[in-house]
Amino acid sequence: MNQIDEQLLESIADLHGTPAGAYNIRKNGAGVARQSSANIEIIPKQDKPGIDIIVKPHTKNESVHIPVIVTDTGINDMVYNHFEIGEGADILIVAGCGIHNDGSAKSEHDGIHTFHIGKNSKVRYVEKHFGEKDPGQTGGNIMNPKTVVYLGENATMQMETIQIRGIDSTKRETDFFCEAGSEVVVTERLLTHGAQEAESDMRIELNGHDARGRVISRSVAQDRS
After folding, report:
1. What's the pLDDT tens digit per position in 12-54?
2. Contact at 8 Å (CB) between 166 and 195?
3. Is 81 left (phi over 0), alpha (psi -120 to 50) or beta?
């Protein structure tokens, strides 16, 4: 890891060196570091880019970090990540993507994250997006994440998504499917500057008689100066 890599990882995942527990770090379209733990297994997909994250039932007080960084211009990266959270688990997932564009071509990272959260499980999911460019460079920083979450009975997901700055264009799609007694709480913050554009579409489908869906903050902060 060089200085730019380390700065991006600090910005999107609060990492200072190698994270504790399970992690997968992706750079410029390829996995560069990966570690499973006794209770959280990370498996690379064989048929397409991405990983499967398998969390054993009743795993408590553990975390998994899956940051993505892009440091070259002209990168077009697409990943498919699947999360299988066992019954009764309680974990933290830290994701996010940072782009440092050093040229005039666009650099783009798109991802489809699918979660299956087991009965009585609790997941806190934090996703930060950040972009920057070398002085004088004109390449665009593009991110288009899609998140699909299936919550089992009495499962809970707290989702915090933050677009810090530096993303020229983003289109976010988020779908939740909630069974009886489940709850989803979403906090979303997007920052745009100048000619940057951000669009967010969110759907919460309540399939159980007492499922609860709440968007605590769905805001777009814009600075057009």
Report:
1. 999 988 888 999 999 999 999 999 999 999 999 999 999 999 9
2. no
3. beta
